[in-house]
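Dear Dr. L.,

I hope this message finds you well. Following up on our conversation about the binding site, I have prepared a predicted three-dimensional model of the protein together with aspartic acid. For your records, I am including the exact sequence and ligand specification that went into the calculation, followed by the structure tokens. Please feel free to forward this to your student if that is useful.
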Amino acid sequence: MALVVAKFGGSSVATAERIKNVASRLVARHRAGDQVVAVVSAMGDNTDYLVDLARSINTNPPKREMDMLLSTGEQVSVAVLAMAVEALGVPAISHTGAQVGIYTDDTHTAAKIDHISAEHIRDDLSEGRIVIVAGFQGINSRGEITTLGRGGSDTTAVALAAAIQADFCEIYSDVDGVYTADPRICPRAHRIDKLSYEEMLELSSNGAGVLQLRAVEFARKYGVVIHALSSFVTDSPGTFVMKAEDIMTNDSMEGPVISGVAHDLSEAKITLRHVPDIRGVAAMLFERMAELNVNVDMIIQDISHEGLTDISFTAPLNDVEKLTPACKELSETIKADGVEINTHIAKVSLVGAGMKSYPGVSAKMFRVLADNGVNISMISTSPIRISIIIDADQCELAVRALHTAFGLDDEDSSGSVKVVR
Ligand code: ADP
Ligand code: ASP
Ligand code: MG
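The resulting structure of the complex is given below.
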């Protein structure tokens, strides 16, 4: 008998039919003797709908009220999934984050889980029920509803798996695992069997939305093995995300140099032109961004010419509105030559633990891009990643060209459908 946490994303519960499909899976698992805790997202694009609704009413809605609103999406899914399970003759019970005891800090819309009191779940399981928990939400110490940030149901699942010491944490979506690139834009991408936490962190933080970054961070911290699977395909082994050491001992000593290519179209590039090259300017700029809670990603400062330099950085597109006035004000204060904002950029990243001990990866990457007519405007690296900023129109071309050049193409499946919507 295993204790399983299984998370189903929005596409897996988008319709009544799909909810029944998830219920059958849970029931089959239960009848096979496992104890099952399901974590569920809002149905389909319901969260997007609720976000749009809020913004159409108030362009800057209070964050507490956003949490109140967005948490309703998951509340709908857990209730109907519990009904679907009961209809198949197995007792089920749904819980909101608050009911199950997922305690968070006070940061509305981006709360961090503080602790989970899992007694309810244990009691329900011991009574033979399938337990269904609303993803993405919790409660702070004052009893206020909080949410964990977009894609947060993945984090709920991993945190619950850690709290109840589950044997498996399965994350079901519309794709049967983590691929070497987003299969939606790279038809030759193939499923990866096993990935280290470090590689998955780099992929997730650079646009591979199949697993939420914070969920992977949580999994690494608590040693939870994530098993990414499709809720529509039943015969795929999926992808395991686990400790690098465990991958090494079980499999061939040397993995591929490059594990995958990620892309991200959700950032903008901001440049302050002809900034006087004096001490403290970068500090002023980025302190201001920190005050505004802007998550700055890449930063580049060129060497100065005649005492003037350009500073460029990338930040989420969603933050452009709030950072623009601050950057303009600072540009005037420090007598720079103005601010340029490019919202039409893509970040493309090559990720692979093998690149640490394999020279020439960046040279090859830049050559492939040059040969394909792709101009690079920023570069950043980590020991296992190289990221570049390019024009958004060239994103697909760059991902596909790099995927081919680094030997990642799946020759058998070009053009086959891998994502079910
Ligand atoms: P859910 O709504 O179930 O949480 P998501 O939409 O968050 O599912 O994640 C699944 C999607 O992630 C896929 O449809 C796919 O387009 C996208 N994706 C991006 N990069 C990758 C990748 N490297 N491997 C697999 N899927 C990816
Ligand atoms: N429903 C939330 C969202 O769409 C949380 C999740 O699906 O993980 O972001
Ligand atoms: Mg997701």
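In brief: Residues 9-10, 41-42, 47, 73, 135-136, 150-154 surround aspartic acid (ligand 2) (CB under 6 Å).

With kind regards,
A. P.
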